Amino acid sequence: MPEGPEIRIAADQVEKAVIMKPLLEVSFGLPELKGYDEWFTGQAVSAIQTKGKALLTHFDNGFTIYSHNQLYGKWYVTDSFTYPKTNRQLRLALHTEDKSALLYSASDIQVLKTEDVPMHPFVKKVGPDILSEDVTANDLQFHMEDKRFFRRNLGGLLLDQAFVAGIGNYLRTEILFVTGIHPSKRPCDLTAEKRQDLAKAVIQLMERAYRTKGITLDPEIVTRKKAAGEPRSQYRHFAFDRHMEPCYQCGGPIEKINVASRRLYVCPRCQPN
């Protein structure tokens, strides 16, 4: 399932394809949105914003298309009016003279007045988006000390989109691993210095995953493993999906546990409970 970095990468691709270009045709795949096709045809996309796993496609006519990828949504960018071979259902198509941006499988798509976007239920409650907003480690530390988050286990808190937008399963594992924090710990259990480390790790790993298309492992280790001819699966993560493989820090086995009904990987030695 895509997380914040993957959605931001998709947004960049869509933006490059359609930004400020007259749209020859816009079509919606959901029956309840069919009547909006003509509203957007001939208009231009003025900006594309991400809020975690949601995309906000802003148009110069004062309207915005809100779309959330949920579990299976996927954007494709193709040559104009060219469609990929897929069994997915087309939900939204933006066609320019040279490119098409196509959203498949997403079921949460809405048309909003741009001025009303801040009051949308998801946008209103979602936390800071590291990849689309100017968020510092100090900002994030102050945010985690809010009473809504301060006494919650980090294993569950990091998946809460109201805390930080776009963190999913692999980023949760990696953030906790690099900071040496067990998922049962709460922000209130950590020193102020450790909370600052956690805030820095959130920003660093989200930005790294964005730059590398999902790789969170230390760049030096990645370079070494690539030179040895190892496959991408062997140099993607510190701990995620590495059950019983050796920890990069202590050499002990990584273990898989379930937290908040989803798999999470920890090093028992480096992340003591």
Outline the structure in words:
There is one protein chain. The protein has helices at residues 4-18, 37-40, 121-125, 137-144, 154-157, 169-179, 192-212, 219-227, and strands at 25-28, 45-51, 54-59, 63-68, 74-79, 90-95, 99-104, 108-113, 255-259, 262-266. By secondary structure, it is an alpha+beta fold. The protein folds into two domains: 4-125, Alpha-Beta Barrel (N-terminal domain of MutM-like DNA repair proteins); 137-266, Helicase, Ruva Protein, domain 3. A hairpin with a 3-residue loop joins strand 3 (54-59) and strand 4. The relative contact order is 0.12. The protein has eight helices and ten strands. The strands form three sheets. A four-stranded antiparallel sheet has the order 1-6-7-5. A four-stranded antiparallel sheet has the order 2-3-4-8, with helices on one face. The protein has a two-stranded antiparallel sheet with strand order 9-10. Its EC number is 4.2.99.18. Belongs to the FPG family. This is Formamidopyrimidine-DNA glycosylase.
Notable traits:
N-terminal domain of MutM-like DNA repair proteins, four-stranded antiparallel sheet, 8 helices, 273 residues, Helicase, Ruva Protein, domain 3, 10 strands, alpha+beta
